[in-house]
Structure formats: structure tokens, C-alpha cells
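FAQ: What does the model actually see?

It sees only this:
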Amino acid sequence: MKKYSYLLFLMLPVMMLLFEACRKQDLINNDSNLKLTFSTDSVVFDTVFTSIGTSTRRLMIYNPSDKRLNISSIVVGETSQSVFRLNVDGVAGVSFGNIEIPAKDSLFVFVRATIDPLNMNNPFVVEDDLVFLINGNIQRVKLIAWGQDANYIIADQFIKGYPKFKIVADSLQTVHWTAGKPYVIYGFALIDSYGELIIEEGTQIHFHDKSGLWAFSDGVLKVRGTKENPVIFQGDRLEQEYRDVPGQWDRIWLMDGRQGFNHEIDYAIIRNGFIGIQAESFIRATANNLKISNTIIENHTGIGIYSRLFAIDANNLVVANCGSYGMALTTGGDYRFIHSTIANYWSLSTRNNANVYVSNYVLDSLSVPIPYPFNLVMGNTIIYGSNDEEIETDFVGSADSTYLFDNCLVKTGRKLSLFPGFVNCMKNQDPLFKDYNTFDFHPDTLSPVIGKGKIDFAESFPVDLDGISRTPFPDIGAYQFVPRTK
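And it is asked to produce this:
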């Protein structure tokens, strides 16, 4: 017993210190000079669409004291009508009282914003304060959000087997979308049979998750951007962290049409979806074309251009960094790509497919191939990427099928002399893009494509995607090299 009493006597001072420390932390620090500290003095939201809301921003509140703190109140602004909303300790609202923070500890506050439409074409700023009352003192953190009013298109129809949609151009109707307020699409915006949608220069189209633009059979899409004011298709999250996030929306879906009523896309940027453009003969073999010029299709989780028995005529086209294929031209069709850059350095997952895939058949219900005629011409075009083989051909007999890569730079394991479809092509020479990580596919100073273009193709398209003259010494690809000036 004496032994245990002695040990207890030795431990008593330690126990008293621990008790004192616990009691000290249990006390509330009422010092009027004490102030909270914050992870930032301003919570800032990038431009967001009115009525949609934003991603969540996190604010950390720190207690620098060695005692507990009681925050008498946390309030958003001076009114309950603020566009900002909070979540404190899992509870949503605009005001909170008697929030305690242990000594040397912290508290998470999550902030969201929903901005009401003000019918303004230009972005506008909304500001408020997050107000803290502690020990009779007031501290503030600034809340700032940039709002943008928009034209909202919300799907209101559903047919089994199809995505939800809203008709934006009805039969025999021509509709113009213009710059000013952007268009924000929930579901699919549908161009009905014999309807026409014309999208004018500078227009911005933003798609919500799993949304897209859809031209039904015999509907017509015309995109009329300019070099100075391209038409932009992208997701509806405008915060900076979403700038290069793929898979934010679904696709532009174009179906078969009548002869002479071509789909046309000029000076457009199509980014961050699942499939950039899907063009397919849905009801019958198409009699119209898809004409694409001066356009960038980039950063899609699936495919840049996916076609099924269609006709595509393209020039000054960039298709870049897609998770499956840059292009999948399937089930036959007629294709012509001149002065294009098809580059794939996808790094967000493993890409097992070639950058460009072509085939001339479809499988029937018994997995028997049904062949269709196929014709492909690529001229003065770059087909390159991070895989060893970036061109895959998948043909069966019994259908006229030809392909020609004329004066191109290609990434392939083929011995080109054994394949008559490759004429005067450079093989496996790094095109030396300026910076493919930032989607800059201009040739750099030592690029092997400089001056190696075939003049016949350049004469048909004498200026590049930037409006730079190609002649008299054209480069291969969508961009002409411009020497740096001192």
C-alpha cells in the first residue's frame, strides 16, 4: 500500500496540471481584444449564371486563443435577402448564434451564391459581408460574386428512347441565336425536322450536365462565328477551376438531312463535353454534308468527332485531347479533312485507342458485318499523339473503301511504303507544338511541318485558323508558323 501511495503522490502534480489545462480550455475567453483569424479576407466567386448557383467555397475560422471562444452570431449581410447562403456545422442558413470553437481549433463555413436575374447582358457584381460578433466586437469577411443573366432553355418533352428536350426551332421555322445574353441549356435543345437554327457570331452556349444540342432528321444547324468573335460551346460552370474540366456536358448531335441543306460550323470552339460532334445517318443515309471550318474541338472525355455513315468536309480544324478517339469515322461515309491538326495527348486516364479510327461496316443483330462505301482524304494534316499507333483502319470487303493520307505528318507503326493510302507523308516526327498541355497546337520554331505543306491544298485554303496567309510556303496542319519578332 505504501508503494501505491508513493506513486500516487508522485503523479499528483501531473494530474493537477492536466486538470488545470482541461479546466483552462473549458473556460470561455471573454477578452474584448481577442479577434478571430480567417483563411481569407474575401470569398470570391467567378462569373456564375443567375438562378443557377455556384460551386461551394470554404472559409476557415481559427481560434488563436488557448481558451474556448463563443461567437455570438454569424450573419450574412444586413438582410435575409442576400444572394449568399451558409452551411455551418452541417446546418444551412443565413444566420447562426452561439457557435463555440475549442482552444487552438478551427471551424469550417461553406458559402454558396444564387443570383437573381436582372435582365442585364453584361456580367455584374454582387457583394455582401459575412459578419461575426465576438466579445462585443464585429469582424467581417467580404463575399463577392460576379453574376451573368442568360437565356434559359429547359427541356420540357420526353419520348421514350430519346433524351429530354425542348424544341428551339420548330418545323419550317428559322431561329437566330445572337450574342448578348448567353444561352444556358438544361436537357437537349432540339432543331425539329425542317427547322433551322442559325447561331450568330459571338454567341455563347452553355450546357448543364448531360445536356446538348440536337438537330433531328432534316433539321439544319448553321454556326456562323468569326475569327474575332467565335461561337463557343461549353459547360455552364464558369468558375476558373472548371476551365479545363472535360465531360461537363453531352454532345452536339446532328442527324441526316436533305441534299443542299448542309450543317455548317464556322469559327466555333467546342470544349469540355463527352462528344464534341456526333453526326450520323439515323433514319436513312444522309444526303447532306457537315461542313466544318476554322473550328476547335477539344478536351472531351469520349470522342472529338464521331460519325456514322455521314459526309464531312473540314478545313482549318483542330481536334485535340480526347479520352477515347480524336475522330471515329465509322460505318462508311465520305470524309475530307484539309489543313487540320488532330492531336491527342490525353492524360486524365489511360487512352487505349488510336487518335483516328475509321471503319466501313456495322454489325447486324447476329454480329455479321454489313459493309458500306467509305472514302477518306486527309491532306496537309497532322495526326499525332502520345500513343505509338494513332491511326486504326477497320475494313471488311464487299464495299468500295478507300483512304488517302496525302502530304501528312502521321504517328504510326506501319511501314508506309507498303500502304498505298499514304502518299508523301512524314512518319513519327514530333510536330513540336508550342505547348500541347495548354492546348496550343501552333508549330514551334523547329517544327518539321514548317514549309512542308502541299501547295495544291494551301491554294484551296490560303489562310490558316488565325487568318495568317499560307502561301507561298504552306505548313502542314491548321496553323501556319509565324516567326517571333524581337
